């Protein structure tokens, strides 16, 4: 029992303070936070809304988070969620790459670059962006497409400069 009696008999009964922690409110708060994070996490992936094409290719394993280049239906280019002009794309990627190389150990491969393009955008615009990236010296460039079952986006065709990488 939580509160025992201190003395015997009917007179002078006093209850000791309860020394147990009530964890029910703590569990309630944690469950609410868990639900909030479960709902909010899928919304924090990529902020540029695109209608990706579908593919049967299987996803690849990633050690590092890739850099995502998105081309929206209007043809605007985004690095992650920041809009850039085509002329600024390679210098920004070089700055990101240099910052990453300073913080990593020697011998690690360069970061993969994913190009996402809306289904309705011109294929030429996507190839213009990819060609610009490849001309800038980046070799690990891949296209993203949507999985048929609604799974996470996967690279469809990795390219290394003018040759294809398998």
From TrEMBL:
Pfam families: ExbD. The keyword Transport applies. GO terms for biological process: cell division; protein transport. GO terms for molecular function: transmembrane transporter activity. It is a single-pass membrane protein; Single-pass type II membrane protein. The chain crosses the membrane at residues 21-44. One of its GO terms (cellular component) is plasma membrane. It is found in: Cell membrane. Belongs to the ExbD/TolR family. This is Protein TolR. It comes from Rhodovarius crocodyli. The lineage of its organism: Bacteria, Pseudomonadati, Pseudomonadota, Alphaproteobacteria, Acetobacterales.
């Amino acid at each position: 029992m939580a509160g025992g009696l201190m003395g015997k008999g009917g007179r002078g009964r006093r209850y000791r303070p309860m020394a147990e922690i009530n964890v029910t409110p703590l569990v309630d708060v944690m469950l609410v936070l868990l639900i909030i994070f479960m709902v909010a996490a899928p919304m924090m992936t990529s902020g540029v809304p695109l209608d990706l094409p579908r593919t049967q290719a299987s996803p690849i394993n990633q050690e590092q988070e890739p850099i995502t280049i998105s081309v929206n239906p209007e043809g605007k280019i985004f690095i992650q969620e920041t809009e850039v002009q085509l002329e600024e794309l390679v210098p920004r990627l070089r700055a990101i790459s240099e910052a990453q190389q300073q913080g990593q150990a020697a011998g690690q491969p360069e970061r993969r670059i994913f190009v996402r393009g809306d289904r309705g955008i011109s294929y030429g615009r996507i190839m213009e962006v990819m060609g610009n990236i490849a001309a800038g010296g980046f070799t690990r460039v891949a296209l993203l497409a949507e999985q048929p079952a609604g799974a996470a986006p996967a690279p469809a065709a990795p390219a290394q400069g003018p040759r294809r990488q398998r």
